[in-house]
Design brief:
By secondary structure, this protein is mostly helical. It is 62% helix and 5% strand. It folds into two domains: 359 residues, no CATH class; 94 residues, no CATH class. The strands form two sheets. It has a five-stranded mixed β-sheet with strand order 4-3-5-7-6. The protein has a two-stranded antiparallel ribbon with strand order 1-2. Helix 5 packs parallel to helix 8 and helix 10 packs across helix 14.
């Protein structure tokens, strides 16, 4: 005789589960426990991130990106919001170099954080962390709108927050993190409007779609894709479009126009944007691209998150009402990484797929809860495993920036064979120059032979086009994998 699973008492109000007996005390406690999960995860995320908030910016993705927006925020403080174009026309070293290839919200958030809290590393990272925590709650809200019971809903949020994307990049002030709560938020209000269309839900959909478009390129594309799917359904069904379908489309259009207007205002035209897009399209090998994207899945989402994502691909077919959200998110993320495949070497460009991680975990848990075995608690334990792991390698910091500060102490310019950028400018307060080839290195060796150059064997190998010699015998000091080497000795050794 087939075992009948025990009744579940953690459904959200109004779920279509038929009549149920009154929930016993154990069931009520379980429901309360599941509903405390997003709060617990929010607190845990803050605790795990607290020790990283004021670490020096360094040559990690987090250090590079946060320092870019922090540099713009510094310019707002010194030159004002209008003259600095909200921070896009930032002073980098001793010159103004605009940086406005992206929607403006991230720069505005950085400038606001720097204005209100002061020019501190922790201020910019705290702003990013606030968006990460907000994503916990909008993810919870979206899964609720998808009609998941509290147990699967909580496990979906647990799987998403446990990914290296949120644990590792959660303090990185950049478009992906700022967009994350708006991504879940748009899917939340869209799903709710699908079930109960109204003018109010349409207004909220349009507002969230616009906010997402101000945060990220993919925010514009996702809102536009959802809106077009809705309009296509209206045409197919020979009905008038629903208000939320129209407002989401309008939000995408206005967000796109705002992005283009911001770029033109900051750069004096759109030429810079088209040139940057041409660079991002790139000409890298498609075979390499496929291998890198597969690697990015595990780097960005971990083993548990990747398994949940695959679970979404298999199980979402059972829930037709979720096809629009899941399909649009996947299509936008995949198309963006494919078209701009040179930029897709950044693992966090696929951040949108965290939606499918949360969805997949919830779907798997929804299937597991029907088993007579206690599979849902076991899945919860499995979902907690990523929190025991360290941060992804691209997010660890060995305070490499100490090398830059030391190198720039007694010289007007910081030189390096590594990609320096805004993190080095922010930390040293000096212009930086990356020596990209042996000719540049020899030039510095002739004019400033004793100047210390920041180098690593890996970066030096890229400069000279062959495996680099050991730097231990010529280095004045080493910091992690970086070495400080006099320019003349470095040129003599490598070139």
């Amino acid at each position: 005789m087939r075992a009948t699973p025990a009744p579940d008492f953690d459904s959200p109000a109004g779920a279509d589960d038929g009549p149920r007996p009154a929930a016993p005390r154990v069931g009520r406690r379980a429901a309360i426990g599941w509903r405390l999960v997003p709060l617990a995860l929010s607190v845990l995320l803050v605790l795990l991130s607290a020790g990283r908030l004021d670490r020096p910016f360094g040559p990690t993705y987090e250090g590079f990106n946060t320092a870019v927006w922090a540099t713009g925020a510094q310019t707002v403080r010194t030159h004002g919001w209008v003259e600095s174009r909200l921070g896009a026309r930032a002073v980098r070293g001793d010159e103004v170099r605009p940086y406005a290839h992206h929607p403006a919200l991230t720069q505005v958030v950085a400038a606001a954080a720097g204005t209100v809290l002061g020019d501190h590393r922790w201020a910019y990272r705290l702003a990013a962390l606030a968006f990460s925590v907000a994503a916990v709650w909008t993810c919870w809200g979206w899964l609720g709108a998808c009609r998941f019971r509290d147990g699967p809903r909580a496990l979906g949020v647990l799987a998403a927050v446990g990914t290296p994307l949120v644990r590792g990049y959660g303090v990185m002030l950049n478009m992906e993190i700022v967009w994350l709560p708006l991504l879940f938020g748009l899917l939340w209000v869209w799903q709710a409007a699908e079930r109960a269309p109204s003018r109010r839900s349409a207004t909220v959909c349009g507002a969230v779609a616009l906010a997402g478009g101000l945060a990220a390129h993919q925010g514009i594309l996702l809102a536009g894709t959802l809106g077009m799917l809705g309009l296509a359904r209206a045409v197919t069904a020979r009905r008038r479009p629903q208000p939320h379908e129209l407002s989401t489309s309008a939000g995408a259009v206005v967000g796109g126009l705002a992005f283009l207007g911001w770029v033109a205002w900051a750069n004096g035209g759109l030429g810079v944007l088209w040139r940057q897009a041409g660079v991002r399209v790139g000409a890298r090998s498609w075979a390499d691209w496929v291998l890198v994207q597969a690697e990015h899945l595990v780097v960005l989402f971990g083993v548990v998150g990747t398994a949940a994502l695959l679970g979404a691909a298999v199980l979402v077919r059972r829930r037709p009402e979720l096809w629009a959200a899941a399909g649009a998110t996947f299509a936008v993320t995949a198309a963006y990484a494919t078209v701009f495949r040179d930029g897709a070497w950044h693992p966090y460009w696929n951040a949108g797929l965290v939606v499918l991680v949360a969805l997949g975990a919830a779907l798997v848990a929804d299937v597991a809860r029907r088993s007579p075995l206690p599979l849902v608690p076991l899945l919860a334990l499995l979902g907690a495993v990523p929190f025991l792991a360290g941060l992804p390698g691209t997010q660890r910091s060995d305070d490499h920036v100490a090398a830059v500060v030391a190198a720039g102490r007694d010289q007007p310019v910081v030189y390096g064979t590594v990609l320096l950028g805004d993190w080095a400018i922010y930390e040293s307060g000096r212009p930086v120059e990356t020596l990209a080839d042996c000719d540049a290195l020899r030039r510095v060796a002739r004019t400033e032979p004793e100047v210390l150059v920041v180098a690593s064997e890996a970066s030096l190998g890229q400069v000279i086009g062959r495996p680099a010699p050991s730097l231990e015998h010529v280095a004045r000091a080493t910091y992690g994998e970086l070495a400080l080497v006099p320019a003349d000795e470095l040129a003599g050794t490598a070139c």
